[in-house]
Each structure stands twice: as C-alpha cells, then as structure tokens.
User: Fold this.
Amino acid sequence: MAGAAIAGVAIMALGQIQAGQAAKQQADAQATIQRQQAAQERAKASLEASDFRKRASAAAARNIAVEGASGGQIGTGSSLLAAEDFASESDIQQNRILLGGDIRGTRLEQQALLTKASGKSKRRASFFRAGGTVLSGASSFGGGGGGGDLTSAELAPQFGAGMGPVNV
Assistant:
C-alpha cells in the first residue's frame, strides 16, 4: 500500500514538472511568433512608407504639370512655397508610417519578453509544486508530523539535497 502511495506522489510530482515544462515551451513558441510579428510590422511599415513616397512623388509631378499647363511660373513664388510645403508634409507622413510600424514592433517584442518570462516562471513554479507534493506525501507517510528527522535529500534528492534535517 505504501509503495503505491509513494508511486502516486512521484507521478504527481513528475506530472507537475512536465506541466511546467510544457507551459515554458508554449510560452517560448508564442514569444518566437511575437518576435516574428514585430519584424513583419516593421517590414510592412517600410513598404507602406515606400508606397506613400511613390504616390506623393507622382502627386507632386502632377501639381508641377498642372502649374506649367496653366501658365504659372514653376519653381518661383507661391508655386515654390506650395511645392516645398507638399514635400515637407509628405516627409512627415512617411515618417509617421515608419514610426507606427516601429511602435507596433516594439510592443510585440516587449510582449514576447513578458511571454518568455511567464513561461520561465511557470516552469519554476512547477518545481516548487512538485517539491511541495513530495514533502506533503512524505509527511503523510511519517504519520502526519513528528515522525522523525528526514533530510530533504532523503525525501527528494532533486529538490534540495543538502538542506539539512526536515521534521515531518
């Protein structure tokens, strides 16, 4: 009977450790996906900025053509000021597009770091839960307390060998 109980405690502890390992692996995979998404956001923003630049350049060329066709002086006076203003606004919008992609990418990278840390934390917690299960099981085998001084190394070598006597 005691052998089955010991085996049960060992299986529970092993299951807790495996659950923690699985949680860490899942978090690592999710973090990898988030880092990939961050790179995709930056690449997408770069393409959008490039497309915007092309459209703005075409619009500027149309404006010059319209000004020339209407007999205006291209590159002087108010037409020059309008062209400069248009170019400046185009640059600002292009930079906004790039910045937006960078911000979205940074958020995803930060989320990836948090996700990875969460996986490590879950794995670490699984070892503590498993250790608690082993100690709880050992306590019940010892008669519920006062059963003798066992060392933690005797109870569960992988959970703290050399920690000294533990009264169970």
User: Anything to note?
Assistant: The chain has one domain: 2-142. DSSP finds three helices and two strands in the chain. Residues 2-69 form the longest helix (68 residues). The beta strands are 149-151, 165-167.
